[in-house]
Amino acid sequence: MRILTTLLVLLAxxxxxxxxxRPAIEYTKTNKVDLVRFEHDVMYRxxxxxxxxxxxxxxxxxxxxxxxxxxxxxxxxxxxxxxRIALGARLAYRHLSVRQTxxxxxxxxxxxxxxxxxxxxPNCPDWSKPIGQDFGxxxxxxxxxxxxxxxxxxxxxxxxxxxxxxxxxxxxxxxAAGIRRYREGKVTELLNEDxxxxxxxxx
Length: 203
Hints:
- By secondary structure, the protein is α+β, with helices and mostly antiparallel strands.
- The chain has 5 helices and 4 strands.
- The chain has helices spanning about 1-20, 55-65, 80-90, 145-155, 175-185; strands spanning about 30-45, 75-80, 95-100, 110-120.
- The protein is flat, with a radius of gyration of 31 Å.
């Protein structure tokens, strides 16, 4: 009986030690977000303000190859101020966010730098954690994997997974007008099927 009791105590101590050494959460699924940069040089002849037709075609091919999108940031570096302004206006016409960076460089070249955040979702499913007794009650290896991966693939700009976008100006005039009408008893009644002219399915 004493031997059996001793064995039970040793087993209990071993289980407690294994649980204590194990981290509280062993598996966390996250999206990996990286910043990548694409670069293309636009060449100018004799300090001209606008690039040639051939250089414009090369620039369009570059933007098409990288599949530039609304979440990308375009930086213009080098060249003269006139060249950067003219090229920036040409790119802004494509609804791209364009910024100028750096000091004036050689008038014969303007570098077009495109920065983009890309996301790599976690591998799903993940059954690497053995299924069995878990005295620490830690999550399964696949816990939350599908939700995390779906969020990473659905987000328009992966940068939002790192930090949120700066909100733009808000206009509370419409909301304030609704509150004023409510307080003055001038609430518009909701429409019903009998009052709607040309109701689909009506007589």
